[in-house]
Every structure is written in C-alpha cells, then in structure tokens.
Specification:
transmembrane, membrane, globular, 456 residues, MFS_trans_sf, Growth Hormone, Chain: A, 19 helices, mainly alpha
C-alpha cells in the first residue's frame, strides 16, 4: 500500500491506456453519476409520496437508505457475477433491473411497493453497473489510471447538478408517477454504457489459464491476507461514518440560521460545482511520477483536509461562513472521491480488484447505514448542528490517521521501491511493444527476420 502494484492486467493483457479505453471512461462517468446522484434525486419526490400514501418523512427516507444499502451491500454478489460472466452482460442486465424498478414504482399502490421497486430492484441494478464499470476502468488504464479515476468520479457531481433540477421539473409537469416513468427510461442508458465495456482480448497462451483462474476463484478472499487491504478497509469504514453527513445536513443547518429555502439549497449547488473541478484536478496530481507511488498519503491528506473542514465549519454562524465551508468541503470531498478507488486499485492490483471492491463495499454498507442516522439522533438529542459536524469531522480525521500511521508502521514496501517498481513496469511495457513491432515486421516479410542482408 505504500506503492503501486505493477501488473499486466487480467490474463496477461497490458492496459492500453487509451484507445477504446476513453469510451469505457465515458461509460464509467455516466454510471458513476447515476449511482451516486440517483438516491439524492429521488428525494425530490418525497413530499408527493408523503401526501399520496399518508406516511411520514422517516418512512420515505427509507427509500434512499435501502437503495444505498443495495448499492454497497451487494458488492460480493457483483464480484461473483463479474468473475463468472464478465462485466458487459452483468451491466446490461443491471441496466434493465434499474429501469424496470423505476417503471414498476410508477404503478405503486403503497410505500412498500416503492421500497421493493426503487430500493431493492433499482438499487440492485445500479450496483450491477457501478462496480463492473470501475473494474473495466482499472483494466483499460494503468499509467493514466489516476486521471481516469478522477474524470470518472466527476460524473457524480455533474449528475447531481442535473438530476435534482430535472426531478423537480418532472414532478411539477407530470407528477411523481410520470417522473418515475421518465427516470426509468433514462436508466436504460445504463445498458448502452454496459455495451461499451468491451473485454480485452487475452493472448492465446494466457487465455486458458485466465479462464481456469476465473472459474476457480469467483470471490477471492485471499485479499484479506494483504495488510494494505485490511488497513484500507478499516480506514474506509471509519471514513464513511462521517463523510456523507455534511451534505445531508448543511441545507437544514442554513435554514436553522434563518436563511430562505432557495438560498439554503444553493449551498449544495456551490458544493457540487467545486466538486466537479476538484476530482479531475486531483486525478492529474495523483498521476504525477513522484506522487503516484505515495498516493495513499495523498489520500490521507485529503481525508484530514475534509475532516478539518467539518470541524471548522461546525463554528459557522452565518450564511457567508457556510458558503466558505461548502467551497472547501467541495475541494476536499472531490479529492476523496477521486482517490478512494485509485488507492484500492494500487493496493490489490487488477486481478484481485473485482473481489476486493466487492468486499470493501459490503463492509462500507454497514457504516453508510449507521452514519447519517446516528448523526440525526445526535441532532435530536442536542438540538445543535455544531455537534453533528464535530462528530463527522472527528470520524474522517480518525480514518486518515489510521490509514497513514498504519501504512507507515506496518507496510514494509518503501516509496523508493515503489518508484523502482513503476520504472520496471515501464521498461516491461516498452519491451512488450518492441516484441510486438518485431513480430509484425517478421510476418510482413513473409516469416523472414529483417536484417541487412535479407532486406536487400
């Protein structure tokens, strides 16, 4: 975890770092946007659902909670399906599930139907898209992977800025039933994104061994033997306890200070706008030759930055201070979003990433369900938003300390060794390209190796 894992990808296929990979990156950008922004976009319809089914806000809040639980908690299932059937078919089936869940929800007659259709079915469909898209991105990019991760992660704030206003327009013009139906049609784009995930062709010698390995290990638990993976999983679990809390409560915090609803909602727009540019920028920085072997420490810095922002933001007393908080939170939140999966990819490598991400998401699912509700209970007890932001900041800073200190003490690999590994990987890549060029020239000359005599 102190450096990067150098590998040639699944079945010995070297990541092309471009070409069709840019199409894969675009698909991952769209899928990331749908996966992270959709639970928030659905919340636009909550007031209509409360009025329609005569339920409380806490009842409708379960829709987003179940959706997020499916997105995170089905990680191991996604890993097994990807290792068995491949990314493309899993994503296309997931797109059908996600779309059908929204379409069926438009005919719902009770809140339970909404839970099952949007929470379970659409949540499962998004999960079957989100994880495989990251796996394919990891296979197509190696040297440019930090930048690719940053660009793909930018799909989340872009989609959030688009889907939430769109949901309000759909609700106003067509009602919640019509809105769900149209959003279901939009989710069919997940199938198109899945079709972009063209598998890399393995060499003939590595093809059979790759298939046998995939069948033997549908879910590779050997990642738990990796100290770096264990440290990352523990730190990530602590991180998600507080990471998502401020965006949930900042609008209510502004209203509590006496600001208008529209003015308070503008804070999320500011946060999202900053986030859009922070993620690709952080990806570029993480890809620098000196920084990349030490990306885990950059990730730790991003977490400390985010947690400290929460701690300072807890002292906000007016709207201007909340605007400043959202600007700095957007920068730090974007850094965390760009780096969290890049660091995991660097720890476990391409071959084990499909299993590792599933297991990490499963552990994080518990924390995701515990974090915001716990903050809500603290708010009910104290009636003060300051303590909510203090708790969130403390949890995020703690995760950074666990990650950085544990990595420094327990991971033997030094940054110098990681630099050497990266350089070795580059040399291997150049040799592979040279071999390919010689082979092509060999075939072009009718099987005769070119030399000064035969060339004449």
């Amino acid at each position: 975890m102190g450096g990067v894992v150098v590998d040639d990808g699944v079945g010995g296929v070297k990541a092309p770092d471009g070409g069709w990979g840019w199409a894969v990156l675009f698909g991952c950008f769209v899928i990331t946007g749908f996966s992270y922004a959709f639970p928030k976009a659905v919340s636009v319809f909550f007031k209509e659902l409360i009025r329609e089914f005569s339920v409380g806000y806490s009842d409708t809040a379960w829709i987003s909670s179940i959706l997020l639980a499916m997105l995170y908690g089905t990680g191991p299932l996604c890993s097994v399906l990807v290792n068995r059937f491949g990314c493309r078919p899993v994503m296309m089936v997931g797109g059908l599930f996600a779309a059908s869940g929204m379409v069926l929800a438009s005919f719902a007659r009770s809140i339970i139907h909404i839970y099952l259709c949007i929470g379970v079915l659409t949540g499962l469909g998004l999960a079957l898209n989100f994880q495989p898209s990251l796996i394919m991105l990891n296979r197509y990019f190696s040297e440019k992977r930090p930048l690719a991760n940053g660009l793909a992660a930018a799909g989340s704030p872009v989609a959030l800025c688009c889907l939430s206003p769109l949901g309000q327009v759909l609700q106003y013009r067509y009602g919640w039933r019509g809105g769900f139906l149209i959003l279901g049609g939009m989710l069919l784009n997940c199938c198109a994104c899945g079709a972009l995930m063209r598998p890399l062709t393995a060499p003939k010698k590595a093809e059979n061994s790759g298939i046998e390995e995939a069948k033997a290990k549908l879910l590779d638990f050997s990642v738990f033997k990796d100290r770096g993976f264990l440290i990352y999983t523990i730190a990530a679990s602590i991180m998600v306890l507080g990471l998502f809390v401020p965006p949930v409560f900042v609008v209510s915090y502004a209203k509590e200070l006496g600001n208008e609803d529209t003015k308070s909602a503008l804070l999320l727009t500011i946060l999202g706008f900053i986030d859009i540019f922070a993620r690709p920028t952080c990806g570029i920085i993480a890809g620098l030759k000196w920084v990349r072997p030490r990306c885990v420490y950059l990730f730790s810095f991003a977490l400390i930055f985010n947690g400290t922002t929460d701690l300072i933001g807890s002292q906000s007393k007016d709207y201007a201070s909340l605007v400043v908080f959202c600007i700095f939170f957007g920068i730090s939140y974007g850094m965390v979003g760009a780096l969290q999966f890049e660091v995991l990819m660097a720890i476990v490598g391409t071959q084990k990433f499909s299993s590792a991400i599933g297991l990490v998401l499963l552990v994080e699912a518990i924390a995701v369900l515990v974090g915001p509700p716990s903050a809500g209970r603290l708010l009910d007890y104290t009636k003060n938003y300051m303590f909510v932001f203090l708790l969130a900041g403390t949890e995020v800073v703690l995760s950074a300390l666990v990650l950085a200190i544990s990595n420094f003490l327990f991971i033997k690999k030094k940054p110098q060794e990681a630099d050497a590994a990266v350089e070795a990987g580059e040399v291997v890549g150049e040799l592979e390209q040279l071999k390919t060029a010689v082979h092509d020239e060999h075939v072009h000359n009718g099987g005769v190796s070119p030399n000064p005599e035969t060339s004449l």
